[in-house]
């Protein structure tokens, strides 16, 4: 009877707990309003919070990580392996010596060296430890004597392809060891400088075939050797023809557009791609020019300054290989070319029932017959 009377009078008989809940909600809203600039934090919907600048309570020391990495790198040093390919007489050894300003080529450091035309392409390498301002670099220069020097140059690129794949295979075997080394020796080719003769015409068939095949497994940087034999107009026209041939034959040269990580890299690499192939001049002799010593080639008409961009593009090549893209060359080799080879090898082994897993490894290494069957 009392409930019916209350409903007839329109009274609300909800429990007093609801008023207490409303009071708590009001207090929470007041507290939220008081916090004007909350610190960014992680939530279920936002998995990446960025805390920087004034949001930090004080100096943490995160930037010191760069100093730690620098100290470790300076102690351990690093490797850089460069291959030079081209016919004899194009100045490969001289250019390598000019790049590193020391006698690092095989010809320069071999006593009683005699120039002989090899009957076949036989790759030879020489290694040096170069130190500059406390930074040590193990430089390995791989030379290819005999390439393109024969009357019949059919399949002359096969030894080079085999050598590059052998270095990938060595690295892969070290990675698959049960007890791996703390630091795997890196003998992989990080960059290949291909020398084009300054003919002023189009690319030769051997040039097209070599770069088309090698561009899939290693980073290739084409250069026009002894560019001082061409006039500026001839050089410009020759570079344009080479770029047309590269595009028409689908030849991939470094740096590739698909490997640009961001807009900044794209802008820098676009400028480099506009200058490829680099018209270079190499020398290891110094001359006096306006009271200063410069690397140059002395001619009857004057001195061609190697490091002067108005005379040749050697400085652009040096910046690409050493000063701006050396680490990127190593990253592309490891993340792109080596990774492609690794996936291919593992797929082939799995298809043949020889999965490269710890169960099929003997004494922590691949069997020799299995490793050599795919080279």
From TrEMBL:
Q: Which Pfam families match?
A: Septin (PF00735)
Biological processes per GO annotation: cell division
Show where the Septin-type G domain sits.
76-348
Can you list the GO cellular component terms from the UniProt entry? cytoskeleton
The cross-references to InterPro entries, in alphabetical order and at most eight, read: G_SEPTIN_dom, P-loop_NTPase, Septin
Q: Name one GO molecular function term.
A: GTP binding
Location within or outside the cell:
Cytoplasm, Cytoskeleton
Keywords (A to Z) from UniProt: Cell cycle, Cell division, Cytoplasm, Cytoskeleton, GTP-binding, Nucleotide-binding
Question: What's the family?
Answer: Belongs to the TRAFAC class TrmE-Era-EngA-EngB-Septin-like GTPase superfamily. Septin GTPase family.
List, alphabetically, the PANTHER family matched: SEPTIN (PTHR18884)
Its name, as the record gives it, is: Septin
- Species the sequence originates in: Sinocyclocheilus grahami (Dianchi golden-line fish)
Taxonomy, top ranks, is: Eukaryota, Metazoa, Chordata, Craniata, Vertebrata
The UniProt gene name for this protein comes to septin12
């Amino acid at each position: 009877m009392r409930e019916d009377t209350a409903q007839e009078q329109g009274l609300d008989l909800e429990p007093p707990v609801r008023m207490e809940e409303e009071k708590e909600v009001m207090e929470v809203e007041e507290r939220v309003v008081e916090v004007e600039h909350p610190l960014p934090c992680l939530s279920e919907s936002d998995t990446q919070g960025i805390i920087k600048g004034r949001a930090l309570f004080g100096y943490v020391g995160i930037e010191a990580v760069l100093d730690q990495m620098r100290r470790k790198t300076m102690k351990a040093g690093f490797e850089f392996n460069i291959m030079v390919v081209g016919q004899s007489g194009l100045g490969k050894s001289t250019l390598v010596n000019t790049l590193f300003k020391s006698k690092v080529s095989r010809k320069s450091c071999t006593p009683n060296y005699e120039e002989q035309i090899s009957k076949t392409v036989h790759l030879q390498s020489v290694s040096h430890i170069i130190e500059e301002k406390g930074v040590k670099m193990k430089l390995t220069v791989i030379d290819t004597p005999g390439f393109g020097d024969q009357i019949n140059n059919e399949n002359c690129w096969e030894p080079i392809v085999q050598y590059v794949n052998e270095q990938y295979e060595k690295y892969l075997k070290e990675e698959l060891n049960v007890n791996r080394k703390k630091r795997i020796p890196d003998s992989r080719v990080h960059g290949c400088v291909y020398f084009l003769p300054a003919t002023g015409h189009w690319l030769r068939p051997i040039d097209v075939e070599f770069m088309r095949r090698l561009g899939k497994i290693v980073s290739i940087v084409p250069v026009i050797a002894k560019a001082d034999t061409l006039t500026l107009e001839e050089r410009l026209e020759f570079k344009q023809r080479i770029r047309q041939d590269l595009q028409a034959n689908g030849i991939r040269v470094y740096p590739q557009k698909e490997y640009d990580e961001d807009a900044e890299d794209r802008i820098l690499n676009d400028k480099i791609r506009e200058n490829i192939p680099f018209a270079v001049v190499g020398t290891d002799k110094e001359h006096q020019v306006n009271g200063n010593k410069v690397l140059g080639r002395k001619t009857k008409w004057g001195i061609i300054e190697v490091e002067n961009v108005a005379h040749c593009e050697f400085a652009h090549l040096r910046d690409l290989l050493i000063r701006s893209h050396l680490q990127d060359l190593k990253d592309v080799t490891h993340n792109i070319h080596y990774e492609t080879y690794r996936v291919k090898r593992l797929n082939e082994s799995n298809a043949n029932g020889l999965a490269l897993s710890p169960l099929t490894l003997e004494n922590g290494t691949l069997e020799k017959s299995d490793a050599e069957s795919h080279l």
